[in-house]
From TrEMBL:
Upper lineage: Bacteria, Bacillati, Actinomycetota, Actinomycetes, Mycobacteriales
Protein name, UniProt field: SAM-dependent methyltransferase
Source superkingdom: Bacteria
GO molecular function annotation: methyltransferase activity
Annotated metabolic or biological route of this protein: Phospholipid metabolism; Lipid metabolism
Organism this protein belongs to: Mycolicibacterium setense
Catalyzed reactions: phosphoethanolamine + S-adenosyl-L-methionine = N-methylethanolamine phosphate + S-adenosyl-L-homocysteine + H(+)
GO biological process terms held by the UniProt record: methylation
InterPro entries for this protein: Methyltransf_25, SAM-dependent_MTases_sf
Keywords assigned by UniProt, alphabetized: Methyltransferase, Transferase
Domain Methyltransferase: 50-139
Amino acid sequence: MTGGAYEQYELIAGEYAQAFAGEFDDRPFDRAVLRSFADLVVRSGGTSALDVGCGPGEPTAGLADCGLRVEGIDGSPAMVSLAAQRWPRLRFQTADMFDLPYPVGTFDAVCAWYSIIHTSAEELPELFTAFRRVLADPGWLLLAFQTEGDPGIYEHAFGRDVALTFLRHDTATVCDALEASGFTVYATSKRARQAHLDEPTAQAMVIAHTNTQP
């Protein structure tokens, strides 16, 4: 995500948080993927996770409920503030996901739940390399993103004038970028667009691990 996108989320943080509050209650399949990911982390001996692009903190809290020690980061200070208010038991801070403020191997898992939707396909290897740097061995990565559609260009969203482009990534392209960044793809899944949830496209989830994972 670019700095410009972060600035746009400053404008809509409150409305965004309200719209997606309890998002997993309406998306049981997504919740199951998140829980399965946490189970994989725990079964490999992991205890810690970083939620990158955490927004108002729904996935962060979901991973914590699965027993992981989780931190969340987001480039929008407004989003971080909302997350910290709603989930005071968890730690959140403002940071750019391309420049994560953690030493090498800090976490056993990284979750990027719809955090790559403003990152071009060409930038994905660089971003995944940044994720790989903060992962221990073995380490796990979960991605969720929109797929199968043209980019969505929005000039108005959540009652505000904005300038946001939502990219719909091809799963094969994402997997290629993961492999190029030192990951092995463990599983991919796709969920059909749910019109009653106002979803514009199908949804994809990818789980990967570091190449040393047995």
